[in-house]
Design a protein that fits this description.
The chain contains no helices and eleven strands. With about 120 residues, the chain is mostly beta strands.
């Protein structure tokens, strides 16, 4: 059974940091493109970052480039999102998601999603 389980969300002040984790079971994350996606209140889904399978090519959305870092631990089969310099507008539910292939394709729907973890940036 495939499971993606996010954790690490919470309340944080502007300028603060959080580390989100996505623990995966049922497949090997190194074989697939993995992404972080968020949904802010009243808005649609926003792709943030992906790490491809294999060599691990990484891409970021402009909104988080330089502040967020995606990584994975193949031994733990876990995906991470290090979030620094958090802003009010980063408030959202954050999801990890798996693509169907090793290379990320923004035109393809994700095959599996986690349940999400809430991040709230407030003073």
């Amino acid at each position: 059974e495939v499971q993606l389980m996010e954790s690490g969300g919470g309340d944080v002040q502007p300028g603060g940091s959080l580390l989100l984790s996505c623990a995966v079971s049922g497949f090997t994350i190194n074989n697939y493109a993995m992404s972080w996606v968020r949904r802010a209140p009243g808005k649609g889904l926003e792709w943030l970052s992906n790490i491809n399978g294999g060599e691990g090519t990484i891409n970021y959305a402009d909104s988080v480039k330089g502040r967020f870092t995606i990584s994975r631990d193949n031994a733990k089969n876990t995906l991470y999102l290090h979030m620094n310099s958090l802003k009010f507008e980063d408030t959202a539910v954050y999801y990890c998601a798996r693509s169907r292939r090793a290379d990320y394709n923004p035109k393809e729907e994700y095959e599996y999603w986690g349940q999400g973890t809430q991040v709230t940036v407030s003073s």
